[in-house]
C-alpha cells in the first residue's frame, strides 16, 4: 500500500473534512462569512487575494456541501447574498483554533 493511502486511512475523519471544505480559499471564505452575510462583490473585495473564479468555485463547493447558503433576491440586477449555514457556523471554533495555532507556530522557524 502507498504511504499516502496509509496516512489517509489513519485519519479518515480529517480527510473527509478536507474533502468537504475543498480548496484553501474555502477557509478564508468561511472566516469572512462568519462576520455576517455578504454579497459576492463585497466578499471578493474583502478577500482581494482570491481571484474571482477561485472564489466562485470555492463558494459553489461550500454550497454543495451545506456550509454556505446562497440566497438570490429578485432585484434588477439580481442580488446574490452568501451566508453560513448552521453547519458552516459550527466550523468557526475550528477556525479559531487554527488561528491560535498559526499565531503560535505559523511564522516561526525551527
Index terms:
110 residues; alpha+beta; Arc Repressor Mutant, subunit A; 3-stranded antiparallel sheet; 7 helices; 61% helix; HxlR family transcriptional regulator
The secondary-structure element order is: HHHEHHEEHH
Strand count, sense and closure of the main sheet? 3 strands, antiparallel
Q: Please list the strands of the largest sheet in the order they lie side by side.
A: 1-3-2
Counting H and I runs of at least 4 residues, what is the number of helices? 7
The fraction of residues assigned to DSSP E strands is 5-15%
State the end-to-end CA separation: 32 Å
What integer value in Å does the Rg equal? 16 Å
CATH H-tier superfamily: Winged helix-like DNA-binding domain superfamily/Winged helix DNA-binding domain
Total domain units: 1
Gross morphology: globular
Assembly state of the chains shown: single chain
Number of strands: 3
Low-confidence stretches: none
Average pLDDT figure: 87
What is the CATH topology descriptor? Answer: Arc Repressor Mutant, subunit A
The assigned structural class equals alpha+beta
Q: Based on the structure given, which CATH architecture is correct?
A: Orthogonal Bundle
- Classified by CATH, the class is Mainly Alpha
What is the helix fraction of residues, given as a range? 55-70%
